[in-house]
Design goal:
The chain is α/β, with parallel strands linked by helices. The chain folds into two domains: 13-73 and 162-185, ATPase, nucleotide binding domain (Nucleotidyltransferase, domain 5), CATH 3.30.420; 81-155, ATPase, nucleotide binding domain (Nucleotidyltransferase, domain 5, 2-Layer Sandwich), CATH 3.30.420.40. Helix content is 31%, strand content 18%. The strands form two sheets. Strands 3, 4, 5, 6, 7 and 8 form a six-stranded mixed beta sheet that branches. It has a two-stranded parallel ribbon with strand order 1-2. It is globular, with a radius of gyration of 18 Å.
């Protein structure tokens, strides 16, 4: 890993993201010509944030002629859970509206994770029923819906959150395996239907 930049923002993704990308390239001593590919976290998460991230990645990839790897946000989150091989991991993010984005994983002896369930949106009671005893929970949903994780080992979101270096590492593995995504097919993984929709007949 040549360079990592972490920052947190609420509503300035579009204006701040290009500068942070330029900053991390400068810190790593790498220009766009030195890149072999890009990785982008495609969700689930904030609809607006995902659209900005994916559109920005597609623009960079198109301009530089680079392949892109799509990485699940929950998959990247599960990687920072620090769970032992005998545990189960639940990566869970607050989806608002009394819902949770979640997926289950099992650590392997080599440090990798085996996905057990697809990314999905859960009601807190249903997720509580699905969580095995002593499940390791990572993500901000445990702070918002503690009743969904009875008996869980909770990793603090302040120290265990989705990270760009993890997304980069997972993306590099995907690209090495020939799993680049065609730019026309690269889209955010919302998991649930967006709130804002076009009318059925926009001309009416």
């Amino acid at each position: 890993m040549l360079a990592v930049v972490h920052w947190r923002t609420e509503r300035s993704h579009l204006s701040e993201l290009p500068g942070h990308v330029a900053n991390v390239l400068a810190r790593g001593g790498v220009g766009f010509a030195g890149l072999d590919g890009l990785a982008v976290s495609i969700g689930p998460g904030s609809f607006t944030g995902l659209r900005i991230a994916v559109a920005f990645a597609k623009g960079l990839a198109f301009a530089a002629g680079l392949p892109v790897a799509a990485v699940s946000t929950l998959g990247a989150l599960a990687q920072v859970a620090e769970a032992p091989p005998s545990a189960r991991v639940c990566a869970a993010l607050d989806a608002r509206k009394r819902e949770i984005y979640a997926a289950f994983f099992e650590p392997r002896a080599d440090g990798s994770l085996q996905r057990l369930t697809p990314d999905a949106v859960w009601q807190p009671p249903a997720l509580a029923a699905a969580c095995p005893p002593a499940v390791v929970v990572v993500g901000d949903a445990a702070d918002v819906y503690p009743e969904a994780f009875p008996g869980a080992v909770v990793r603090p979101f302040a120290t265990h959150h989705p990270r760009g270096d993890v997304v980069a590492a997972l993306g590099a593995c995907r690209l090495a395996a020939g799993e680049a995504v065609a730019l026309a097919a690269l889209e955010p993984a919302y998991v649930r239907a967006p709130d804002a929709k076009l009318p059925d007949n926009p001309l009416r």
